[in-house]
Automatic annotation (TrEMBL):
Keyword Zinc found: yes
MF terms in GO: metal ion binding; methyltransferase activity
SUPFAM superfamilies to which the protein is assigned, alphabetical: Homocysteine S-methyltransferase
Binding site for Zn(2+): 305, 411-412
Keywords recorded for this protein, A-Z: Metal-binding, Methyltransferase, Transferase, Zinc
Composition-biased stretches (Low complexity): 152-168
PROSITE patterns referenced in this protein's UniProt entry, alphabetically: HCY (PS50970)
InterPro entries attached to this UniProt entry: HCY_dom, HCY_dom_sf
Organism: Polarella glacialis (Dinoflagellate)
Keyword Cell inner membrane part of the UniProt annotation: no
Domain of life: Eukaryota
Official protein name in the record: Hcy-binding domain-containing protein
Length: 426
């Protein structure tokens, strides 16, 4: 099938590689690996695990660098107690000193930039044959990031006419680093987005998205990806922030337009948390109609972190209403990376007593769906083959064949094994 390989889950792979699942992890999720230098190598190892499988798109570990969690963790006495209990005295003192200097949101941006730097290092080390498990991005590596990003921007979307294969060409220019911009309150909670918008106003979203996007670009991200957007209105605020940022940066960068991908939460939930995939055509049309300005361009539209069946229904509505055909005509890629977990926790919504008090579910208690990850027989061109993650592979085959999905990977619950199955069997 014709598609490009995206990476998979980050947080769960980090846990498998040794990141502690402590109270600090439950507060800031995968950003736990950014707080202490000794875990930076785990981030690089995670990127490398996907690069070895042939991934052409790797995503920065910045999904958890967002203001709600950082304010609660680093801006409150209770949050700082959690941090101090999880870290050694020297590391804790170092972080507290930094927070005292630049504040919780400054730390958030520093970590977002670091996440991009670690991805850049991983790509370079992989392409050089050195592996991605070395030390972290401790110093300022900005000198080469701008020229590197321009090279990748020119090259990283030229693969769509080639069938995916797992030959692992170590060409640095063929690997695109996606700078992740997450929901700023909580994933799968459009109700909390609307609460925060009413309480804090548009400036909260515009300012934080602008700062995060700038940090990711300074760190070396090639393309900005809005991930798991709860609704069109949330995505619009992020796009407005990017447009403002690019206008401010005009004249300081190359003439190459900044690539942007908008990935909606694939169930398109309403305030009642019920899926509404029938809204996919209207929301995607709004994305297409948005004017990013003269220095940025929409390179893709995606659906992520939702059950495959919900994403499939969204794609069916896009196809029926002619939106997929319009995307193809405009050379805008379709990207999909579904959630492989049991859907109950998302249908019910993460427990959050208030916007200021995020409570993450215990990662190891969130179970993956047997119908998606079990090993089973699937037909190939010539024979029946027993493969892992057969249910997800079957889904991948359908959406690349029937709906022209050009970038395929995995979200929560889809680690290297799932990405390997996609690479080998879709």
């Amino acid at each position: 099938m014709v598609f490009e390989l995206l990476d998979g889950s980050t947080g769960y792979v980090l846990l498998e590689k040794g990141l502690p699942e402590d109270d600090l992890f439950r507060q800031i999720w995968s950003a736990r690996a950014l707080v202490e230098k000794k875990y930076h190598s785990l981030v690089k190892q995670t990127h490398e695990s996907y690069l070895k499988l042939g991934a052409k798109y790797i995503t920065t570990n910045s999904y958890a660098t967002q203001p709600t969690w950082y304010e609660a963790t680093f801006g409150t006495e209770e949050g700082r107690r959690v941090m101090a209990a999880a870290m050694d005295e020297e590391s804790s003192a170092e972080v507290l000193e930094l927070v005292g200097s630049i504040g919780p949101l400054g730390l958030m941006c520093a970590h977002a930039k670091l996440s991009a730097q670690l991805a850049v290092e991983s790509r370079h080390e992989f392409a050089s044959g050195g592996g991605g498990g070395g030390g972290g991005a401790e110093g300022n590596k900005d000198n080469n990031n701008e020229s590197d990003r321009n090279n990748h921007s020119n090259n990283n979307h030229n693969h769509s006419n080639n069938n995916h294969n797992n030959n692992n060409h170590n060409d640095e220019n063929s690997i695109c680093i996606l700078g992740s911009l997450p929901p700023l309150v909580e994933s799968h909670r459009p109700d909390l987005f609307w609460d925060a918008l009413e309480a804090k106003g548009e400036a909260f979203f515009l300012d934080n998205y602008k700062d995060l996007a700038k940090a990711l670009l300074e760190g070396g991200a090639d393309c900005l990806v809005l991930e798991t957007m709860n609704c069109w209105e949330e995505a619009e605020l992020a796009l407005r922030a990017i447009r403002e940022l690019m206008a401010e940066l005009a004249g300081t960068r190359s003439q190459q337009k900044q690539d942007v991908i908008v990935s909606l939460e694939g169930s398109l939930r309403g305030k009642d948390l019920k899926p509404q995939p029938h809204l996919a055509p209207a929301w995607v049309r709004k994305v297409l109609e948005f004017d990013l300005g003269p220095t940025a361009r929409l390179r893709g539209v995606g659906f992520n972190c939702a059950p495959p069946e919900d994403i499939l229904e969204s794609l069916e509505h896009l196809s029926t209403e002619g939106v997929l055909a319009e995307l193809e005509t405009r050379d805008i890629l379709v990207m999909v990376y579904a959630n492989l977990h049991e859907r109950d926790i998302y249908d019910e919504g993460f427990e959050m007593p208030s916007v200021q008090s995020p409570q993450r579910p215990e990662a190891r208690k969130v179970t993956r769906r047997g119908d998606l990850i079990e090993t089973a027989a699937l037909a190939t061109a010539d024979e029946q083959t027993t493969i892992p993650c057969a249910g997800y592979v079957k889904f991948g085959r359908k959406i690349t064949r029937d709906f022209g999905v050009k970038i395929l990977g995995g979200c929560c619950g889809c680690g290297p094994q799932g990405i390997a199955a996609i690479a080998q069997h879709v």
